[in-house]
């Protein structure tokens, strides 16, 4: 019987993806690997480029220039090539590895990632997990395919007494319930 587990998404079948694994007897987290080589640019450099662009365009660096700009510094989404299934009352918490901040200047800007049970096999991206990352170091950071970039922890979540039943199905992630994806 299938209860909870990880699977490889179709796009990455036969691409040598390893399913997440725990590393020691009592490790809570299933370590999740990057599915591709990817370079994470430094946020300092990106911000420098933005400021340089503002100055070059003759803008003064007033607060309103930032407010007017829709040039949001978006985190990089690292593909994992995997999806996760679990009972409806569970959630996979995607957490950073402490070594990422300690050794690599790699942060998960959303703090933790919340992977909902109904994200599995969604029509848009089949439920592929992505890890949002920011490199707060000064150099670009190379992530290689197979590097363990985050860990997934399964937990049960609770509902309030007056929780409203809802029939809406999840079609994707990253703002899909906002009406439009951002
Ligand atoms: O680090 C993350 C965080 C989320 N997700 C996927 C799985 C999750 O089920 C979905 C929605 O995440 P969340 O509810 O945290 O984001 P949202 O901004 O509320 O998006 P939505 O409106 O789609 O719920 O996006 C990831 O792949 N990685
Ligand atoms: Mg949501």
TrEMBL record:
Matching Gene3D superfamilies: 2.70.40.10
Q: Which InterPro entries match?
A: dUTPase, dUTPase-like, dUTPase-like_sf, dUTPase_trimeric
* UniProt keyword Hydrolase, yes or no: yes
Which EC main class describes this enzyme? hydrolase
Where on the tree of life does the source sit, at the highest rank? Bacteria
Cite the dUTPase-like domain residue spans from the record.
74-177
Q: Name one Pfam family in it.
A: dUTPase
One annotated GO biological process: dUTP catabolic process
Entry GO MF terms: dUTP diphosphatase activity; magnesium ion binding
E.C. code: 3.6.1.23
Q: What's the catalysed reaction?
A: dUTP + H2O = dUMP + diphosphate + H(+)
Q: Which UniProt keywords apply?
A: Hydrolase, Nucleotide metabolism
For this chain, the family text in UniProt reads:
Belongs to the dUTPase family.
| Name recorded for this polypeptide | dUTP diphosphatase
């Amino acid at each position: 019987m299938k209860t909870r587990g990880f699977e490889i998404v179709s796009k990455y079948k036969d691409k040598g993806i390893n399913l997440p694994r725990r590393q020691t007897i009592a490790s809570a987290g299933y370590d999740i690997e990057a599915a591709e080589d990817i370079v994470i640019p430094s946020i300092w450099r990106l911000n420098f480029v933005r400021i340089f662009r503002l100055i070059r365009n003759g803008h003064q660096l007033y607060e309103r220039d930032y407010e007017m700009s829709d040039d949001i510094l978006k985190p990089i989404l690292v593909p994992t090539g995997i999806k996760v299934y679990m009972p409806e009352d569970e959630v996979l918490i995607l957490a950073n590895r402490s070594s990422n901040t300690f050794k690599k200047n790699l942060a998960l800007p959303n703090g933790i990632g919340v992977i909902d049970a109904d994200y599995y096999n969604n029509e848009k991206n089949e439920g592929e997990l992505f890890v949002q990352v920011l490199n707060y170091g000064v150099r670009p950071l190379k992530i290689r395919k197979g590097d363990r970039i985050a860990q997934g922890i399964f937990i049960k979540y609770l509902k309030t007494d007056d929780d409203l039943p809802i029939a809406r199905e999840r079609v994707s992630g990253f703002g899909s319930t906002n009406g439009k994806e951002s």
